[in-house]
C-alpha cells in the first residue's frame, strides 16, 4: 500500500505516527464494515428463507381451504350415475391430496432449516407448521370418510337399481 511505503521510507514530513494511526483507524473501520455487511447479508438471506417459507404456507393454506370445502359436501348422489361421477371426482381429489404430500414435506423441511438457524420469529414458524400438518392430516381423514360414504351410497343405489330391474322383469 502507498501509505505503508510512505511510512517505511519516512516521507511523511515527520508525521509518520499520525499517518500510521490513521491507517490503523481506516483498517479497523474497514473490518467493521466487512463484518456488518456479512452480518446484514446473512440476515437478508434468513429473511428471504422465511419469506419463501411463509409463501409456501400461504399456498398450502389456500389449497387446504379449497379441499376442506370440497370434502365437506353432503352431496353423495341421488342416482347411481351421479354417485359414480362423484366417486371419479373424489379419486382425482385424493390423487391431488397425495400429490401435495411432497409440498407439505418440503414446508416441514424449510421450517426445520429455519428453526435450526435460530430464526427471529421461531414461535410463528412452529405454529404455522403445526397448523398445516394438522389440517393436512384432517383432510386425509375427511377424504377417507367421504370415500367410504360414497362407496356406501354406490352400494345403496346399485341395490335400488337392481330391485328396479327385478321389478321391471317381474312385470
From TrEMBL:
Keywords: Coiled coil, Repeat. Residues 83-110 form a coiled coil. It comes from the Eukaryota. InterPro entries: Spectrin/alpha-actinin (IPR018159), Spectrin_repeat (IPR002017). The keyword Coiled coil applies. This is Uncharacterized protein. The lineage of its organism: Eukaryota, Metazoa, Ecdysozoa, Nematoda, Enoplea.
Amino acid at each position: 500500500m502507498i501509505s505503508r511505503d510512505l511510512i517505511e521510507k519516512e516521507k511523511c514530513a515527520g508525521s509518520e505516527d499520525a499517518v500510521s494511526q490513521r491507517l490503523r483507524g481506516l483498517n479497523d473501520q474497514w473490518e467493521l464494515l466487512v463484518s456488518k455487511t456479512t452480518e446484514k447479508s446473512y440476515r437478508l438471506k434468513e429473511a428471504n428463507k422465511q419469506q419463501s417459507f411463509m409463501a409456501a404456507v400461504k399456498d398450502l393454506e389456500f389449497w387446504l381451504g379449497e379441499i376442506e370445502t370440497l370434502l365437506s359436501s353432503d352431496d353423495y348422489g341421488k342416482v347411481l350415475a351421479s354417485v359414480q361421477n362423484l366417486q371419479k371426482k373424489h379419486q382425482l381429489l385424493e390423487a391431488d391430496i397425495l400429490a401435495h404430500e411432497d409440498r407439505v414435506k418440503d414446508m416441514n423441511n424449510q421450517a426445520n432449516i429455519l428453526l435450526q438457524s435460530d430464526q427471529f420469529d421461531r414461535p410463528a414458524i412452529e405454529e404455522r407448521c403445526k397448523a398445516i400438518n394438522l389440517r393436512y392430516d384432517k383432510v386425509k381423514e375427511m377424504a377417507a370418510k367421504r370415500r367410504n360414504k360414497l362407496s356406501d351410497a354406490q352400494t345403496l343405489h346399485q341395490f335400488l337399481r337392481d330391485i328396479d330391474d327385478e321389478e321391471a322383469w317381474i312385470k
